[in-house]
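Technical annex, item 7. During the second reporting period the consortium partners agreed on a shared format for inverse folding records so that results from different sites could be compared directly. Each record opens with the tokenized structure and is followed by the designed sequence. A conforming record, contributed by the partner at site C, is shown below for reference.
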């Protein structure tokens, strides 16, 4: 909304509202006193022609004439020729129209509608209505025309935008109008909701929290009811709803000197949002602690908990972790949304040949498939995508995780609990007696887990696991450092997949540019075959509604696949040098992660700066 035009329009409306009616204006050169109706004259002294007024006076009104909005005690009221009620109604409609035009502009851009057309319709037709109401002599008729010029284009826009949004985001529906009344009554302390579900949806975003039981098994609805009565409950719902709508994977509540800072992790990077004051921030943390079955009185020791939320008929899991800091208690929330999870290998961003190689490896009856990379590189996501390619009905698949993040149908999932004595080695020993075909170990952290996993791979089981290493060759020596014998590892390993995550460029706002020949040579690309690279747009007043002005939306993997051939098994068993193993892998056709990433840069999927920042 252009506030300069807004101010000019306000001034014009006020000026038009102060124009005096022509019937109330005295003739030029006539004072207001002279312009008053002449007293009635006696019939004896009157001149011929009844009703003829003397010169310089208005004709006498047969209905009675007075100036102003109402007759005063003296019978006359000079000046003040505007009707305050009518002017108030016109100004109220004007400000409502101004707010509506701003909402239509923002909403149409966010939904990728024809914002120019809808802005023109709402603004121009509304402006015509205001002109009409000021020119039509009958105010009631003018007001009806104004309502029509305001409501018709708005109704047309609402009808189109409601067809493109889910039911929970539709406006001017019976449910939306009911929610407006419920929220207005709730601010006054009155509960008029017909049901608890209607009250939950009206009091804040359409999200419902589900608490965790103290035993950790099942759900405790009483915890959600206790949280509802707490101060800041609506703010907590709005925080979680906003984070989900922005595709955030983590929410961080960080105490500062005079406020609680809030940051979202979106596509791997942290983005600040509007902070809370200290009191509100502490109340929100207590709400999440109540939902996660944590002790709200303990603010110094770290605590862990979990709870769920229901949004649009799907359930979303949350992992909460608190930590005492110098400024106060900090909380981080991990959002585990199944709707945003990757369920197939094809969604990871691998090239087709690599996908076929991975499918061949995971279809083997025994062996070990490792995924390596730093924390947050998507290793577990890759393993679950690989598991989804297997038939869980004809195979016995068991996983050991810390904790269980994504639930898979027909798969036995075990959560590590060190306090209860259920560690990775103990759980792995136990499940090997459960006749598994496929075993997934969340992470190889110690020598005992590594040895048991290799032994399981050598005894007829297919083992999936992750290990922290920079690349595939480093992962081999990481296992040796953990104490695994080279002969045991060489016979167990089938393949190692190294990976990183890079952000994808927004298809709607990315811009191309011609790279310099020196840069192409430095990257090992032929200058005559690369026409353009792509990058995020430079700063602009118009924010892209698809990515929110970030230039990127979503992430995909950059991979490096090492297939363990018979020659490599011999070299590992003999303790060959890193350079020799790397050279042999290159002979077998392995591409480095950086080379795979450059393929994505040339295709315009990501930018060169993003690749260089994440793949060394």
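Designed sequence (site C submission):
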């Amino acid at each position: 909304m252009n506030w300069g035009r807004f101010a000019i329009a306000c001034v014009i409306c006020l000026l038009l509202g102060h124009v005096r009616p022509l019937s109330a204006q005295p003739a030029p050169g006539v004072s207001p006193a002279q312009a008053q109706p002449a007293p009635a004259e006696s019939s004896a002294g009157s001149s011929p022609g009844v009703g003829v007024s003397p010169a310089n006076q208005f004709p006498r009104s047969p209905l009675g004439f007075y100036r102003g909005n109402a007759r005063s005690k003296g019978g006359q009221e000079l000046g003040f020729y505007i009707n305050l009620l009518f002017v108030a109604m016109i100004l109220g409609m004007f400000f409502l129209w101004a707010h509506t035009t701003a909402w239509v502009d923002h909403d149409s851009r966010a939904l990728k509608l024809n914002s120019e057309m809808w802005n023109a319709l709402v603004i121009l037709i509304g402006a015509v209505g205001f002109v009409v109401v000021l020119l039509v002599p009958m105010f009631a008729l003018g007001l009806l025309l104004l309502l029509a010029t305001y409501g018709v284009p708005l109704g047309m826009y609402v009808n189109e935008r409601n067809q493109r949004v889910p039911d929970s985001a539709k406006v001017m529906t019976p449910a939306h109008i009911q929610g407006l009344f419920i929220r207005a009554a709730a601010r006054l302390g009155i509960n008029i909701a017909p049901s608890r579900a209607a009250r939950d949806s009206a009091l804040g975003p359409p999200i419902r929290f589900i608490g965790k039981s103290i035993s950790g098994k099942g759900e405790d609805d009483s915890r959600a009811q206790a949280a509802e009565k707490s101060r800041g409950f609506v703010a907590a719902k709005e925080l979680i709803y906003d984070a989900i709508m922005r595709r955030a994977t983590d929410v961080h509540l960080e105490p500062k000197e005079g406020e609680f800072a809030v940051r979202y992790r979106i596509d791997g990077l942290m983005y600040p949002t509007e902070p809370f004051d200290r009191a509100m921030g502490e109340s929100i943390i207590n709400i999440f602690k109540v939902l996660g079955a944590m002790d709200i009185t303990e603010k110094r020791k770290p605590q862990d908990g979990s709870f769920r939320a229901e949004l649009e008929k799907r359930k979303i899991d949350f992992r909460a972790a608190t930590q005492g800091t110098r400024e106060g208690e900090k909380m981080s929330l991990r959002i585990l949304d199944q709707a945003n999870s990757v369920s197939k290998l094809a969604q990871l961003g691998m090239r087709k040949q690599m996908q076929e190689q991975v499918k061949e490896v995971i279809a083997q009856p025994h062996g070990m498939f490792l995924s390596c990379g730093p924390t947050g590189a998507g290793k577990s996501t890759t393993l679950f995508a690989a598991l989804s390619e297997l038939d869980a009905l004809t195979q016995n698949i068991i996983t050991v995780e810390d904790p269980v993040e994504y639930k898979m149908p027909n798969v036995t999932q075990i959560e590590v609990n060190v306090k209860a004595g259920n560690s990775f080695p103990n759980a792995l020993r136990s499940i090997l007696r459960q006749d598994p075909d496929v075993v997934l170990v969340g992470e190889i952290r110690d020598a005992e887990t590594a040895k048991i996993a290799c032994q399981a791979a050598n005894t007829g089981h297919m083992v999936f696991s992750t290990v922290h290493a920079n690349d595939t060759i480093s992962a081999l020596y990481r296992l040796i450092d953990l104490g695994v014998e080279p002969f045991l590892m060489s016979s167990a390993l089938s393949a190692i997949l190294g990976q990183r995550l890079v952000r994808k460029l927004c298809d709607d706002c990315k811009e191309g540019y011609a790279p310099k020949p020196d840069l192409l040579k430095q990257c090992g690309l032929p200058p005559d075959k690369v026409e353009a690279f792509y990058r995020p747009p430079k700063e602009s007043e118009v924010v892209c509604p698809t990515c929110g002005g970030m230039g990127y939306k979503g992430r995909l993997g950059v991979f490096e696949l090492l297939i363990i051939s018979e020659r490599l098994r011999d070299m590992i068993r003999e303790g060959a040098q890193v350079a020799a193993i790397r050279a042999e892998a290159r002979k077998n056709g392995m591409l480095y992660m950086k080379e795979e990433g450059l393929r994505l840069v040339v295709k315009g999927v990501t930018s060169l700066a993003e690749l260089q920042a994440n793949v060394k």
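The CA atoms of residues 206 and 311 lie 7 Å apart. The longest helix spans residues 84-110. All partners now use this format for quarterly exchanges.
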